[in-house]
Amino acid sequence: MEFIVFIAAMAALIYGADFIIRESERIALHYNISSFVIGATLIGFGTSLPEMAASMMAAWHGKTDMAVANVVGSVTFNIALVLGAVFFLAKRLSPERDLFNKDSAWILFPVILFFLMAYDGRIGPVEGFIFLMLMVAYLIFLFTEDGTDLADEVDEELKKEPFGWGKSLLLLGAGFALTIGGAHYVVESGSAIARMLGVSEWLIGLLLIALGTSLPELVVSLVALKKGNADLSIGNIIGSNVANFSMVLGGAAIIEPLGVRLSDNFDIYMMAAASLSLLLILANKLYNKSGGIFLLMILTLFIYNAVVHG
Question: Could you tell me the pTM of the whole model?
């Protein structure tokens, strides 16, 4: 029964987040806000809304292991699963943007900041606020960049649909209700599953919740691949991971100080390995099956270690 509740709650969480982002985009288009501004803010906020809701709810309930594990797992899944699948399935990827020179800092710096903040075994409200400032810095970076790619991500078809405040507010309300309610039951049912299976809440957050909250990124990337725009998914994943560290981890830490064990936690080092691997792929432009296989091997090792030692 708990598994059914967990799946239903995860679906509510993801669909609720989608309602919020879609209606926010519709309202912004109605008021002629530029596609670049919409794209930048949606990348900064929308892609990690499910993770943020789940981790902040976990922190609210005092389940800090689950909150941290969700971030660690989501960052790893975003790189190893989502980009691993994109690189493996894509026939040819040739991004025009120099991703290594322009974006590598946003892959590496959040990971370094995480290790520095967690060195004493605790990420508190002050560190959480610093993480939130990282999101501000990233948004400034996006707004000062060429907005072509960001503008391409906005669904201009929404602008052609009839707009009504009543419908939008209703859907926004439904989105927030589904997101908050879904996050609550994801945490509660996840904890129940952990007790039932005799595993840690860390493992549930690391695999079940993290995988579930990474599904939107996976779906969007596969759709982009089918449309021939798979190169955009690389930037999306970088932005999503920045948001995971800044808003998700930072927001959770402000609610409740988070305990982090660096010395004996292989999962965290696997997350760092996935991030460094993405840097190597960008530096050498390995946007092909070899890059995909390498990332999928990291994913396999990550899951194996989590299951065997979790």
Answer: 0.86
